[in-house]
Design a protein that fits this description.
The structure holds two protein chains of two kinds.
Chain A (H helix, E strand, L loop, with lengths): L3 E3 L4 E4 L4 E7 L4 E9 L6 E6 L3 E5 L2 E6 L4 E6 L8 E9 L7 E2 L3 E6 L1
Parallel strand pairs in A: 2-11
Antiparallel strand pairs in A: 1-3, 3-8, 4-5, 4-9, 6-7, 7-8, 9-10, 9-11
Chain B lengths: L4 E3 L2 E4 L5 E6 L6 E7 L6 E7 L2 E5 L6 E5 L5 E5 L8 E8 L4 E3 L3 E5 L1
Parallel strand pairs in B: 2-11
Antiparallel strand pairs in B: 1-3, 3-8, 4-5, 4-9, 5-6, 7-8, 9-10, 9-11
Chain lengths: ~110, ~110
């Protein structure tokens, strides 16, 4: 079992729709959770972090965390073609300062 | 403010050679981590350095080594390059819990 699992996609949504990206993790000691966006040929860009169960909203992005189910999700409202990218889920244990474990990423395409 | 800077941006090496990649963190950030990202996969943790000391090491062979300098910049060294070392090498800078990546170094081993 991979430590962090994501559907590889591609996930295709029409412009203006809600894109829903999911991630599960196996290490129950994980305490910090992150979503990175990576455009083709570029490096990952941090877009959301979440540490407590529930929802965290930032503009068009909402991160959701359920530690009991070991599940993290990212919702993108009013999706735009510029949101087309690979979205990487990452988890971190607090005892290792920067040992982030990444999923393979979900490729999102937003069609005009 | 400058972000994380890495050099070089692209590099082509021959099998068996060694390579040194460089990273300058965001000003004020004392922690630097290195990741390897193979095409189609997520980044894999290689090393973390904080205040010039190694704080973590991923599951990579001893051919991989790193160090951090007094100005918090860092080098990643890879010896005896293999074709499988071809990847995007990412440096991440962090002050606390959040990590920010540089643009990466694309290494091709031929």
């Amino acid at each position: 079992q991979k430590e962090v699992e994501q559907n590889s996609g591609p996930l295709s949504v029409p412009e203006g729709a809600i894109a829903s990206l999911n991630c599960t993790y196996s290490d129950r000691g994980s305490q910090s959770f992150f979503w990175y966006r990576q455009y083709s040929g570029k490096s990952p860009e941090l877009i959301m972090s979440i540490y407590s169960n529930g929802d965290k909203e930032d503009g068009r992005f909402t991160a959701q965390l359920n530690k009991a189910s070991q599940y993290v999700s990212l919702l993108i409202r009013d999706s735009q073609p510029s949101d087309s990218a690979t979205y990487l889920c990452a988890v971190k244990r607090m005892d290792n300062n920067n040992d982030m474990r990444f999923g393979a990423g979900t490729r999102l395409t937003v069609k005009p | 403010d400058a972000g994380v800077t890495q050099s070089p941006t692209h590099l082509i090496k021959t099998r068996g050679q060694h390579v040194t990649l460089r990273c300058s963190p965001i000003s004020g950030h004392k922690s630097v981590s290195w990741y390897q990202q193979v095409l189609g996969q997520g980044p894999q943790f290689i090393f973390q350095y904080y205040e010039k000391e190694e704080r973590g090491r991923g599951n990579f062979p001893d051919r991989f080594s790193a160090r951090q300098f007094p100005n918090y910049s860092s080098e990643l060294n890879v010896n005896a390059l293999l074709l499988g070392d071809s990847a995007l090498y990412l440096c991440a800078s962090s002050l606390d819990i959040l990590s920010f990546f540089g643009q990466g170094t694309r290494l091709t081993v031929v």
